[in-house]
Structures are given as C-alpha cells and as structure tokens.
Design brief:
InterPro entries: Metal_resp_DNA-bind_regulator (IPR052509), Tscrpt_reg_PadR_N (IPR005149), WH-like_DNA-bd_sf (IPR036388), WH_DNA-bd_sf (IPR036390). This is Transcriptional regulator PadR-like family protein. This protein is of the alpha+beta class. The chain has four helices and three strands, in the order H-E-H-H-E-E-H. Strands 1-3-2 form a three-stranded antiparallel sheet. Helix 1 crosses helix 2. The longest helix is centred in the C-terminal third of the chain and has 28 residues. The radius of gyration is 17 Å and the shape is elongated.
Length: 106
C-alpha cells in the first residue's frame, strides 16, 4: 500500500471527513511531510471507493458549495489493520538490525 493511501485510510479511521478535512488530517498525521493536492486526493478517493475500501457518507452545502464526506468501510478497516501490522513487522526488523549495528548507550 502506498503511503498516501495509508494516510487517507488512517484519516478516515476515526470517522467521516470531507475532502479538505482529509487533506488537513493527512498533513497532521505525516508531520507535514505529505501534502495531498486536490486532484491527487479525488483520484485516490475514487479508486478507494471503486475498491470498496471507503464510501460516500453524506453531502452538505456550505457557502453554496457541496462537501462530500467519506467514511471507511469494514473492508477499508481490515486493509488498514493489515497494513499497520505489516509496517510494524518491518519496523521491528529494522530496529533490531539498527541495535545490532549501534548498541544503545549505557
């Protein structure tokens, strides 16, 4: 799973968000390293919807513009859980190797 996909799913894990809310949450989650462009975000949202990982939640009108909210589906939660476990396993392996090369100070 690519990092932007992981971050979008993570942004939706605690509840529905609209596009700009997802962009803001991804920026926070990534410590400012990832800034999604609008085109990139909506392409990803369309793909994740087609894959059955997320779905539209609701729409609301704000200042004459429609905001569409998205939510994580059960399949999306499972994919996020699996990817989190995979990343944890890789991180644990990397940390073990780093400790072998650079022992922690006493």
């Amino acid at each position: 799973m690519r990092e932007p996909t992981f971050l979008i799913l993570t942004a939706l894990a605690d509840g529905p968000r609209h596009g700009y809310g997802i962009v803001q949450e991804v920026r926070v989650l990534s410590g400012g390293r990832t800034s999604l462009l609008t085109g990139t975000l909506y392409t990803a949202l369309d793909r994740l919807t087609a894959e059955g990982l997320i779905e539209p939640d609701r729409e609301e009108e704000v200042d004459g513009r429609v905001r569409r909210y998205y939510r994580l589906r059960t399949e999306g939660l499972a994919a996020l859980t699996d990817e989190t476990a995979r990343l944890r396993q890789l991180t644990t392996a990397a940390e073990a190797r780093l400790r072998a090369v650079r022992p922690e100070p006493a």
